[in-house]
């Protein structure tokens, strides 16, 4: 097996997507598990997630996400290839101001059990050595809790809100919410540092290319919310009041009758549950938010690609 850096080119992005799709297709197979976003490096002397780690579908469908991380974190993004040069595994990880994030870890089903995932994660964890914080979004697969706890993470049960938006019972936002853009980078980095201990930094540039951005800013605090397709991609605010304002505005921006998703809500995000239920969405259990060296950030809705 050969490990090499993921390069910023279409061929490598397609190789990563191929591996992730195949791994995700085997998610329900006995003994497999999935971790969908970020995580901290395994503690010394303890095993990492192990070789059977397929990835949730959304990240597998983001070739531009792969190329972005290959540019910003070339030493944290690797492809595993067999003797014939065929891709059999991939890992994408980032390091942002002391927060290490595992954005993707996937191994082809036929290559699982051979140490491919273990070595990929070992190398990615080495890239994050010295980072004190980690965060991961894991789906509701039985093996996720086991592998994440073995890797030293705290498990926080997560919910999702999904359904068709009904604006009739949803109050209007209690303050101004504006369309955002690159000029709001400093505002967003400041909010990030307060909530998750490190700014998303260049990841905001990538999110701005593919998402609609809503921001609120005033004397009492600030916050932002990215919308991508039919989902809330990422939301962060310095107070629950502002988070409610942003999520209310986001659901309004989706519009009446639109099917939407608000994922990865921990028990501390009851403000989001209240807004979603008022808008006609339904709450359901949806896996785990896995953390190391940090409390669940709140008010905060993490992104799978950039948690």
From TrEMBL:
Residues 1-172 form the N-acetyltransferase domain. Keywords: Acyltransferase, Transferase. InterPro entries: Acyl_CoA_acyltransferase, GNAT_dom. Its EC number is 2.3.-.-. Residues 40-57 have a biased composition (Pro residues). It holds the Pfam family Acetyltransf_1. This is GNAT family N-acetyltransferase. It comes from Streptomyces desertarenae.
